[in-house]
């Protein structure tokens, strides 16, 4: 877990290549130890880095293996994390139907588990997807719900980030003072 934590700090510092190497090393350790949960968690982190680096195929592979590992081990609520990642992969590839399905499944699992943070992530992604597709009303609803969830768990910066998306939506609607 030390390598995983170090890699996470490197991500925060913008050192993505170094973080990816540390996640790879952590992945090998978890595999050697026979820890499916550790493997799946690190794979999700690797998927996130690969998405940030624009490595869509690598991200898809990492998220898919993470999802399969969580499911195989009965960790259904944790499956929400790689499902959001898969939604991002699908959206980046222009496959909006599968993106929506992934985000909605992640949302359902997160809600079932009482995971407000991950629910808000899925909602914000559903909002962005709706906005891309011109369904501004659905986008507004998803963003507002995501903001409420973030605020309810004290994540002010996360709520602010989603508020920026809501403001972008207001501009798209031709109402820039709202949002």
Which secondary structure elements does this structure contain, and how are they paired or packed?
Blueprint: H1 2-12, H2 16-33, H3 36-52, H4 56-72, H5 80-92, H6 96-113, H7 116-132, H8 136-152, H9 156-172
Helix pairs in contact: 1-2, 2-3, 3-4, 3-5, 4-5, 5-6, 5-7, 6-7, 7-8, 8-9
Account of the 3D structure:
The structure is a single chain. The chain has 179 residues and is an all-alpha fold. It has helices spanning 2-12, 16-33, 36-52, 56-72, 80-92, 96-113, 116-132, 136-152, 156-172. Helix 3 runs antiparallel to helix 4 (56-72) and helix 6 packs antiparallel against helix 7. The longest helix is centred in the N-terminal third of the chain and has 18 residues, at 16-33. The chain starts with a helix and ends in a 7-residue tail after the last helix. The mean pLDDT is 92.
């Amino acid at each position: 877990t030390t390598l995983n934590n170090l890699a996470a700090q490197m991500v925060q510092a913008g050192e993505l290549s170094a973080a990816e190497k540390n996640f790879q090393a952590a992945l090998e350790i978890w595999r050697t130890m026979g820890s499916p949960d550790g493997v799946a968690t690190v794979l999700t982190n690797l998927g996130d880095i690969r998405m940030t680096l624009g490595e869509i195929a690598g991200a898809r592979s990492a998220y898919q293996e993470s999802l399969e590992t969580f499911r195989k081990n009965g960790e259904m609520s944790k499956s929400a994390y790689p499902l959001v990642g898969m939604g991002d992969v699908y959206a980046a590839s222009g496959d909006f139907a599968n993106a929506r399905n992934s985000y909605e499944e992640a949302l359902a699992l997160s809600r079932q588990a009482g995971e407000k943070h991950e629910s808000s992530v899925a909602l914000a992604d559903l909002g962005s997807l709706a906005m891309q597709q011109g369904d501004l009303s659905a986008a507004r609803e998803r963003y507002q719900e995501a903001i409420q969830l973030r605020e309810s768990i004290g994540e002010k910066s996360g709520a602010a980030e989603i508020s920026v998306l809501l403001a972008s939506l207001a501009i798209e609607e031709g109402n820039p003072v709202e949002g």
